[in-house]
Design goal:
The chain is α/β, with parallel strands linked by helices. It contains 15 helices and 14 strands. Strand 11, helix 14 and strand 12 form a beta-alpha-beta unit.
Amino acid sequence: MVNRPLYLKKLMTFKNQPLIKVITGMRRTGKSTLLLLFADALRTQGVSEDHIIRLNLEDLENEPLQDYHKLYQHLKEAMQGKEHVYLLLDEIQAVDGWEKVVNTFYENGAADIYITGSNAKMLSSELSTLLSGRYVEITVYPLSFQEYLDFLPPARRTPVDAAFSAYLKYGGFPVIPGLPQTNDTIGIVLSGIYHTVLVKDIAQRNAVRDAQLLEHLSSFLADSIGNPIATSRISGYLTSQGRKVSGTTIDNYLRMLAEAFVFYPVQRYDIKGKAYLKTQEKYYIVDTGIRNALLGFRPGDYGHILENIVYLELLRRGFRVSIGKLGALEVDFIAERMDERIYYQVSASALDEHTLERELRPLMSIPDQYDKVLLTMDRTYVRNYEGVKNVNIVDFLLER
């Protein structure tokens, strides 16, 4: 197993704290492996094997435990006579009523609890109320570019630009770096991941009646990353495909895709009015490889793909991200964390004078002193444009 220190460090930080550690993220992003890495770390620290109780609730052998009464009894017996254990419960959403089990063991203080799930619905408003103040959520994403390089065979880590091109094309699911780097091989794997999520975490869980419509909508969003999305625009597209659908149905399907961590909606923020806007959200996909597999590995909008990569990197770094509006101007990303705010503009290239002026204008129009950064694929000696930092995207992704 290749280590993922970003996430393992977070788990170790919260170890033995009186909080339920909730690990979320799309399937195949590495949540189960993270639990294995954590279990290894516990053993290294001297925790005995019988004090680490790990269950994958989607394994066939554990199917009887998907009844929460049986799960409770099983865990109670496994914990018998032990003063303090570590409960590592994988894909907990397979158990209806799982929160009753988790709450019970949390309340008696006999276990340090770690759970994973592949659907954000497991932390619905009702459940969040039940666990209020008792949990911390850690979201696992596909590999960052730095992690991707770590997962690659050493011979393919250089040149870095070639590795980055492969990363853009095939994405960052942990299984990808070790596969033969061909469209056919990787396309089959990515399609399998995607359709498992569509069927298991969306269609079955939400009793979706029209799975084909869900696929149409997902493909539309994949082809529209980085563009403003309105229900009316989606409705027009689906009508052109011979599918007349209500706005309510579209909104429900968008919510389902977001809850399964396939797409991330990003709100617009009025910088001058200091308020979030309720329309024209943008959507970014969890992984550019999934997008390219869906659309046939055809050349796409390079600029928006780079935006997608930067957006996910900001999430990994713990930022809350929105899109900035300043009158008619737009800033690609406002990244906020605690009392920190950074404005980012992303462009494939800004070597052309007119492109540079267009990209800088929104940043230079912002009337505050927070950092402003222009990210491009350019390699140039210019590091600063009148207070706006000029940074290469690959360099940005490899910042430690």
